[in-house]
Give the backbone structure.
Amino acid sequence: MKIEFAPLNIPLRRRLQTAAVLQWIFSFLALADLLTQCCLAGFVLLALSDWWLLALLYAGWLWLDWDTPTSGGRRSGWIRSWMVWEYFRDYFPLRLIKTVDLDPKKNYIFGFHPHGVLVAGAFGNFCTEATGFSRLFPGLTPHLLMLPFWFRVPLFRDYIMSGGTRLSVCPPVCHVHVCGTGRASSNWLSNTGGWEAGLNGCLLCLCSCRAQLVPVFSFGENELFDQMENPTGSPLRRLQVRGPHASFSFISSLCSISPVGKPIPVTQTPSPSRDDIESLHKVYMQSLTDLFEEHKHTYGLDEHQHLTFI
Protein backbone atom coordinates (compact mmCIF):
# COMPACT_ATOMS: atom_id res chain seq x y z
CA MET A 1 0.00 0.00 0.00
CA LYS A 2 1.36 3.39 -1.02
CA ILE A 3 1.42 6.06 1.68
CA GLU A 4 1.21 9.69 0.57
CA PHE A 5 1.81 12.62 2.92
CA ALA A 6 -0.36 15.73 2.78
CA PRO A 7 1.22 18.95 1.42
CA LEU A 8 2.13 21.72 3.85
CA ASN A 9 -0.33 24.25 2.45
CA ILE A 10 -3.44 22.43 3.68
CA PRO A 11 -6.13 24.93 4.83
CA LEU A 12 -6.63 25.30 8.57
CA ARG A 13 -10.20 23.98 8.43
CA ARG A 14 -9.00 20.80 6.76
CA ARG A 15 -6.33 20.34 9.40
CA LEU A 16 -8.97 20.74 12.11
CA GLN A 17 -11.11 18.11 10.37
CA THR A 18 -8.17 15.71 10.30
CA ALA A 19 -7.42 16.40 13.97
CA ALA A 20 -11.05 15.67 14.87
CA VAL A 21 -10.90 12.26 13.16
CA LEU A 22 -7.51 11.42 14.67
CA GLN A 23 -8.71 12.14 18.21
CA TRP A 24 -11.68 9.86 17.60
CA ILE A 25 -9.42 7.07 16.30
CA PHE A 26 -7.09 7.60 19.25
CA SER A 27 -10.04 7.26 21.62
CA PHE A 28 -10.76 3.74 20.38
CA LEU A 29 -7.31 2.43 19.57
CA ALA A 30 -5.31 4.02 22.37
CA LEU A 31 -7.61 5.32 25.10
CA ALA A 32 -9.65 2.11 25.21
CA ASP A 33 -7.18 -0.68 24.43
CA LEU A 34 -4.24 0.96 26.22
CA LEU A 35 -6.30 1.67 29.32
CA THR A 36 -7.51 -1.93 29.29
CA GLN A 37 -3.93 -3.16 29.43
CA CYS A 38 -2.69 -0.58 31.92
CA CYS A 39 -5.65 0.16 34.18
CA LEU A 40 -4.99 -2.71 36.58
CA ALA A 41 -1.31 -1.84 37.01
CA GLY A 42 -2.13 1.86 37.28
CA PHE A 43 -4.86 1.22 39.81
CA VAL A 44 -2.51 -0.90 41.97
CA LEU A 45 0.21 1.78 41.83
CA LEU A 46 -2.32 4.48 42.69
CA ALA A 47 -3.66 2.41 45.59
CA LEU A 48 -0.13 1.97 47.00
CA SER A 49 0.73 5.66 46.67
CA ASP A 50 -0.25 8.71 48.69
CA TRP A 51 -3.22 9.04 46.34
CA TRP A 52 -4.82 5.79 47.52
CA LEU A 53 -8.00 7.65 48.43
CA LEU A 54 -8.58 8.49 44.76
CA ALA A 55 -8.26 4.81 43.87
CA LEU A 56 -10.74 3.91 46.60
CA LEU A 57 -13.23 6.56 45.49
CA TYR A 58 -13.06 5.55 41.84
CA ALA A 59 -13.38 1.86 42.71
CA GLY A 60 -16.49 2.72 44.69
CA TRP A 61 -17.83 4.75 41.79
CA LEU A 62 -17.31 1.86 39.37
CA TRP A 63 -19.09 -0.51 41.73
CA LEU A 64 -22.09 1.81 42.08
CA ASP A 65 -22.16 2.68 38.38
CA TRP A 66 -21.44 -0.75 36.90
CA ASP A 67 -25.00 -1.39 35.66
CA THR A 68 -25.54 2.05 34.11
CA PRO A 69 -24.73 0.89 30.52
CA THR A 70 -27.53 -1.70 30.76
CA SER A 71 -30.08 0.60 32.38
CA GLY A 72 -30.17 3.57 30.04
CA GLY A 73 -26.62 4.89 29.87
CA ARG A 74 -25.70 8.49 30.66
CA ARG A 75 -25.97 10.74 27.62
CA SER A 76 -24.87 14.38 27.47
CA GLY A 77 -26.50 16.76 25.02
CA TRP A 78 -23.59 19.14 25.52
CA ILE A 79 -20.96 16.59 24.48
CA ARG A 80 -23.09 15.36 21.56
CA SER A 81 -23.16 18.95 20.26
CA TRP A 82 -19.41 19.65 20.45
CA MET A 83 -18.02 21.49 17.43
CA VAL A 84 -15.34 18.82 17.08
CA TRP A 85 -18.02 16.47 15.74
CA GLU A 86 -18.85 18.95 12.97
CA TYR A 87 -15.20 18.83 11.88
CA PHE A 88 -15.38 15.04 12.18
CA ARG A 89 -18.47 14.99 9.94
CA ASP A 90 -16.96 17.28 7.31
CA TYR A 91 -13.71 15.34 6.98
CA PHE A 92 -15.32 12.42 5.10
CA PRO A 93 -18.08 13.88 4.95
CA LEU A 94 -20.93 12.03 6.69
CA ARG A 95 -24.57 12.50 5.75
CA LEU A 96 -27.79 11.10 7.26
CA ILE A 97 -30.74 10.93 4.85
CA LYS A 98 -34.35 10.60 5.99
CA THR A 99 -36.60 8.75 3.53
CA VAL A 100 -39.72 8.53 5.72
CA ASP A 101 -41.10 10.14 8.87
CA LEU A 102 -40.93 8.09 12.07
CA ASP A 103 -43.61 8.32 14.75
CA PRO A 104 -41.92 9.56 17.96
CA LYS A 105 -44.52 7.66 20.01
CA LYS A 106 -43.10 4.34 18.81
CA ASN A 107 -39.82 2.54 19.49
CA TYR A 108 -37.36 1.61 16.75
CA ILE A 109 -34.21 -0.40 16.40
CA PHE A 110 -31.97 0.72 13.54
CA GLY A 111 -29.89 -1.96 11.82
CA PHE A 112 -26.81 -0.13 10.51
CA HIS A 113 -24.92 -1.73 7.59
CA PRO A 114 -22.08 -2.12 6.90
CA HIS A 115 -20.21 -1.70 10.16
CA GLY A 116 -16.97 -0.57 8.53
CA VAL A 117 -13.62 -0.36 10.31
CA LEU A 118 -14.49 1.89 13.26
CA VAL A 119 -18.21 2.47 12.69
CA ALA A 120 -17.63 6.08 11.66
CA GLY A 121 -21.07 6.48 10.10
CA ALA A 122 -23.00 5.02 13.02
CA PHE A 123 -20.96 7.02 15.52
CA GLY A 124 -21.32 10.32 13.67
CA ASN A 125 -25.03 9.85 12.97
CA PHE A 126 -26.25 8.45 16.28
CA CYS A 127 -23.70 9.48 18.95
CA THR A 128 -23.46 13.12 17.88
CA GLU A 129 -25.78 15.78 16.51
CA ALA A 130 -23.36 16.61 13.67
CA THR A 131 -25.63 15.12 10.98
CA GLY A 132 -28.82 16.47 12.55
CA PHE A 133 -30.51 13.36 13.93
CA SER A 134 -32.76 15.30 16.34
CA ARG A 135 -33.74 17.71 13.56
CA LEU A 136 -34.53 14.89 11.09
CA PHE A 137 -36.35 12.70 13.62
CA PRO A 138 -37.81 15.01 16.27
CA GLY A 139 -38.94 13.33 19.45
CA LEU A 140 -36.67 10.31 19.07
CA THR A 141 -33.65 9.65 21.29
CA PRO A 142 -30.87 7.61 19.62
CA HIS A 143 -28.72 5.09 21.49
CA LEU A 144 -25.88 3.22 19.79
CA LEU A 145 -25.47 -0.32 21.13
CA MET A 146 -21.89 -1.48 21.68
CA LEU A 147 -20.06 -4.59 22.87
CA PRO A 148 -19.74 -5.09 26.64
CA PHE A 149 -15.94 -4.83 26.37
CA TRP A 150 -16.01 -1.05 25.87
CA PHE A 151 -17.96 -0.45 29.08
CA ARG A 152 -15.40 -2.25 31.22
CA VAL A 153 -12.66 0.28 30.47
CA PRO A 154 -12.33 2.95 33.21
CA LEU A 155 -12.89 6.55 32.06
CA PHE A 156 -13.49 5.48 28.46
CA ARG A 157 -16.85 3.98 29.45
CA ASP A 158 -18.00 7.38 30.72
CA TYR A 159 -16.78 9.08 27.53
CA ILE A 160 -18.72 6.81 25.18
CA MET A 161 -21.86 6.80 27.33
CA SER A 162 -21.96 10.59 27.05
CA GLY A 163 -22.78 10.16 23.36
CA GLY A 164 -25.74 7.93 24.16
CA THR A 165 -24.20 4.45 23.86
CA ARG A 166 -25.58 1.46 25.71
CA LEU A 167 -24.61 -2.16 26.18
CA SER A 168 -24.77 -4.47 23.17
CA VAL A 169 -27.79 -6.35 21.83
CA CYS A 170 -27.72 -9.19 24.33
CA PRO A 171 -31.04 -10.91 25.18
CA PRO A 172 -30.91 -10.02 28.93
CA VAL A 173 -30.78 -6.27 28.21
CA CYS A 174 -32.72 -6.00 24.97
CA HIS A 175 -35.97 -5.25 26.77
CA VAL A 176 -34.30 -2.34 28.56
CA HIS A 177 -33.00 -0.90 25.30
CA VAL A 178 -36.30 -0.81 23.47
CA CYS A 179 -38.29 0.68 26.33
CA GLY A 180 -36.78 3.97 25.20
CA THR A 181 -36.16 4.69 21.56
CA GLY A 182 -33.14 2.55 20.76
CA ARG A 183 -30.68 2.30 17.90
CA ALA A 184 -28.72 -0.84 17.09
CA SER A 185 -25.52 -1.16 15.09
CA SER A 186 -24.65 -4.56 13.63
CA ASN A 187 -22.04 -6.21 11.38
CA TRP A 188 -18.46 -5.30 12.22
CA LEU A 189 -16.83 -7.14 9.30
CA SER A 190 -15.53 -4.72 6.71
CA ASN A 191 -14.34 -5.38 3.18
CA THR A 192 -13.32 -2.51 0.92
CA GLY A 193 -15.01 -2.61 -2.49
CA GLY A 194 -17.69 -5.11 -1.48
CA TRP A 195 -21.16 -4.79 -0.09
CA GLU A 196 -21.79 -7.43 2.54
CA ALA A 197 -24.34 -7.31 5.31
CA GLY A 198 -24.08 -9.57 8.35
CA LEU A 199 -27.41 -9.89 10.11
CA ASN A 200 -26.16 -10.80 13.56
CA GLY A 201 -28.72 -8.71 15.41
CA CYS A 202 -30.97 -10.13 18.11
CA LEU A 203 -33.98 -11.07 15.94
CA LEU A 204 -35.14 -13.61 18.51
CA CYS A 205 -35.41 -10.90 21.14
CA LEU A 206 -37.00 -8.45 18.72
CA CYS A 207 -39.99 -10.73 18.32
CA SER A 208 -40.77 -10.26 22.00
CA CYS A 209 -40.12 -6.49 22.05
CA ARG A 210 -42.45 -3.64 21.15
CA ALA A 211 -40.14 -2.09 18.56
CA GLN A 212 -40.05 -1.72 14.79
CA LEU A 213 -36.95 -2.64 12.82
CA VAL A 214 -35.47 0.06 10.56
CA PRO A 215 -32.78 -0.74 7.93
CA VAL A 216 -29.98 1.78 7.37
CA PHE A 217 -27.36 1.41 4.66
CA SER A 218 -24.22 3.53 4.74
CA PHE A 219 -22.92 4.02 1.20
CA GLY A 220 -19.17 4.55 1.28
CA GLU A 221 -18.69 3.22 4.81
CA ASN A 222 -16.29 0.47 3.74
CA GLU A 223 -14.19 2.99 1.79
CA LEU A 224 -13.73 5.54 4.58
CA PHE A 225 -10.44 3.83 5.45
CA ASP A 226 -7.89 2.22 3.12
CA GLN A 227 -7.73 -1.34 4.40
CA MET A 228 -5.53 -4.34 4.04
CA GLU A 229 -7.14 -6.98 1.85
CA ASN A 230 -9.25 -9.45 3.83
CA PRO A 231 -10.90 -11.94 1.44
CA THR A 232 -12.99 -14.77 2.87
CA GLY A 233 -10.70 -17.53 4.16
CA SER A 234 -7.65 -15.28 4.59
CA PRO A 235 -5.76 -15.20 7.92
CA LEU A 236 -6.77 -11.56 8.48
CA ARG A 237 -10.44 -12.36 7.90
CA ARG A 238 -10.25 -15.27 10.37
CA LEU A 239 -8.65 -12.92 12.91
CA GLN A 240 -11.44 -10.40 12.38
CA VAL A 241 -14.07 -13.07 12.90
CA ARG A 242 -12.48 -14.02 16.22
CA GLY A 243 -12.15 -10.47 17.56
CA PRO A 244 -14.11 -7.28 16.74
CA HIS A 245 -11.05 -5.08 17.27
CA ALA A 246 -8.96 -6.71 14.52
CA SER A 247 -9.13 -4.08 11.79
CA PHE A 248 -6.03 -2.88 9.96
CA SER A 249 -6.37 0.28 7.90
CA PHE A 250 -5.15 3.75 7.01
CA ILE A 251 -7.30 6.86 7.22
CA SER A 252 -8.88 7.90 3.94
CA SER A 253 -11.41 10.55 2.93
CA LEU A 254 -14.52 9.40 1.12
CA CYS A 255 -18.15 10.33 1.59
CA SER A 256 -20.40 8.17 3.81
CA ILE A 257 -24.10 8.73 3.14
CA SER A 258 -26.66 6.81 5.20
CA PRO A 259 -30.28 6.69 4.01
CA VAL A 260 -32.71 5.49 6.68
CA GLY A 261 -35.33 3.09 5.33
CA LYS A 262 -38.95 2.42 6.17
CA PRO A 263 -39.76 0.79 9.53
CA ILE A 264 -40.68 -2.88 9.54
CA PRO A 265 -43.50 -3.78 11.96
CA VAL A 266 -42.54 -6.68 14.22
CA THR A 267 -45.27 -8.92 15.56
CA GLN A 268 -44.84 -9.27 19.30
CA THR A 269 -44.47 -12.95 20.18
CA PRO A 270 -43.53 -14.00 23.76
CA SER A 271 -42.10 -17.33 22.53
CA PRO A 272 -41.16 -16.90 18.86
CA SER A 273 -40.65 -20.05 16.82
CA ARG A 274 -37.85 -20.65 14.33
CA ASP A 275 -40.34 -19.90 11.55
CA ASP A 276 -41.12 -16.53 13.15
CA ILE A 277 -37.40 -15.66 13.23
CA GLU A 278 -36.83 -16.81 9.66
CA SER A 279 -39.84 -14.85 8.44
CA LEU A 280 -38.60 -11.63 10.07
CA HIS A 281 -35.12 -12.33 8.77
CA LYS A 282 -36.35 -12.59 5.18
CA VAL A 283 -38.45 -9.43 5.44
CA TYR A 284 -35.50 -7.49 6.83
CA MET A 285 -33.12 -8.75 4.14
CA GLN A 286 -35.58 -7.74 1.45
CA SER A 287 -36.11 -4.29 2.98
CA LEU A 288 -32.36 -3.70 3.22
CA THR A 289 -31.92 -4.89 -0.36
CA ASP A 290 -34.68 -2.57 -1.57
CA LEU A 291 -33.06 0.36 0.24
CA PHE A 292 -29.70 -0.44 -1.36
CA GLU A 293 -31.15 -0.80 -4.86
CA GLU A 294 -33.23 2.35 -4.56
CA HIS A 295 -30.28 4.58 -3.65
CA LYS A 296 -27.21 2.93 -5.20
CA HIS A 297 -27.35 4.91 -8.46
CA THR A 298 -27.55 8.19 -6.55
CA TYR A 299 -24.30 7.38 -4.75
CA GLY A 300 -22.23 6.29 -7.72
CA LEU A 301 -22.79 2.53 -7.89
CA ASP A 302 -23.58 0.83 -11.19
CA GLU A 303 -26.30 -1.62 -12.13
CA HIS A 304 -24.08 -4.66 -11.62
CA GLN A 305 -23.31 -3.95 -7.95
CA HIS A 306 -25.65 -5.73 -5.57
CA LEU A 307 -25.94 -6.40 -1.87
CA THR A 308 -24.88 -9.84 -0.65
CA PHE A 309 -25.53 -11.38 2.76
CA ILE A 310 -23.00 -13.27 4.87
Q: What stands out?
A: The chain has one domain: 12-298. The mean pLDDT is 77. Residues 12-298 form a domain with the Glycerol-3-phosphate (1)-acyltransferase fold (CATH 3.40.1130). Residues 12-48 form the longest helix (37 residues).
